[in-house]
Amino acid sequence: MTLPIQIDERLAALGTRADDVDERFVRGTGPGGQKINKTSSTVWLRHRPTGIEVRCQRERSQAANRELAWQELCGKLEARTRAAADAAVQAREAERRRTRQKSRGQKVRMIEAKKHRAKHKARRGPVGDEW
Question: Rounded CA gap, 35 and 64, in Å?
Fold first, then answer.
């Protein structure tokens, strides 16, 4: 069976091939009685490289469930690539913040805090029989 053009385009944009996906039609579960127990209208997709699985039985027809399942799989793959890109951007930003020069005000405040801490520690005396 062929995929809709929109889904083919989304897969191509992700760099994923339809051959990398296992597609099976299985019997549904849940409410619906004998009809849902007899027909294989539920679509199960598994993207082999990532292990992402999608199962769809929202509609009564197999064709509608198939399209919905492929859309959901594309959405999950897109979210995964977006998350990886966001993590890379966050890592770059964290490195930039860590390595940037401190401003003059920050340096002054840091030195003042060190002096204050040194005075505080200098006031400490030896513990002994001063009483």
Answer: 17
